[in-house]
């Protein structure tokens, strides 16, 4: 699920292969676009909104579909060659998608062509959430291996790993990009300061 940048719209997917566009103030549906069937939507619920609010990226089978955020019209398809992400996010400039899934690899993808720019390796289980710093230079990923890993996207390398047993799989950076919030199944929220060399 994602809000549009102006806060006026809300976008969500379902298990039947549809992307729904809602008025965030009234909850009224604006549009529904069927992008697949229950058989080929392997990872329903995974979507990312372009920073300018014009394009939605949604996972359908092994593809990422790019949809017009206003009309739902398809703008393009990015074939991920059997690497569909469980989680993904656009970089703030909108030029790249960072995604990770069952192959345990964090892939940096060209948002225009779908080409893989970098493969960041370190996790040993499914990647379930991704957060990017506001300047787009750093990514944090959390996986079912109960670790959070911090990545320098410019250098394409891991800069830190945190053991987070009991974490729920949800993470977020603060507005300054210097602290990372990690949610836990016991209802707690813990804040981690980024290392000085990150």
TrEMBL record:
UniProt entry tagged with the keyword Repeat: yes
Family matches, as Pfam families: WD40
UniProt keywords, alphabetically: Repeat, WD repeat
Protein name from the UniProt record: WD40 repeat domain-containing protein
WD repeat intervals: 120-161, 171-198
Keyword Isomerase in record: no
Listed InterPro entries: Quinoprotein_ADH-like_sf (IPR011047), WD40/YVTN_repeat-like_dom_sf (IPR015943), WD40_repeat_CS (IPR019775), WD40_rpt (IPR001680)
Classification via PANTHER family: TRANSCRIPTION INITIATION FACTOR TFIID, TRANSCRIPTION INITIATION FACTOR TFIID SUBUNIT 5
């Amino acid at each position: 699920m994602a809000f549009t940048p102006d806060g006026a719209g809300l976008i969500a997917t379902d298990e039947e292969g549809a992307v729904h566009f809602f008025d965030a103030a009234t909850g009224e549906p604006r549009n529904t676009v069927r992008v697949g069937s229950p058989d080929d939507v392997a990872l329903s619920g995974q979507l990312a909104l372009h920073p300018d609010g014009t394009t939605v990226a949604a996972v359908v089978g092994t593809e990422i579909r790019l949809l017009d955020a206003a009309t739902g019209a398809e703008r393009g398809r990015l074939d991920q060659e059997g690497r569909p992400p469980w989680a993904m996010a656009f970089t703030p400039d909108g030029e790249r998608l960072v995604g990770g899934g069952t192959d345990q690899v964090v892939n940096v993808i060209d948002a225009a062509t779908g080409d893989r720019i970098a493969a960041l390796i370190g996790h040993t289980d499914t990647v379930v959430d991704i957060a990017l710093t506001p300047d787009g230079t750093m990514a944090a990923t959390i996986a079912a291996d109960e670790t959070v890993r911090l990545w320098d996207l410019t250098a394409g390398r891991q800069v830190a790993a945190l053991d987070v047993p009991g974490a729920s799989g949800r993470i977020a950076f603060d507005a300054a990009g210097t602290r990372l919030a990690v949610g836990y199944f016991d209802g707690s929220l813990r804040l981690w300061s980024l290392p000085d060399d990150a």
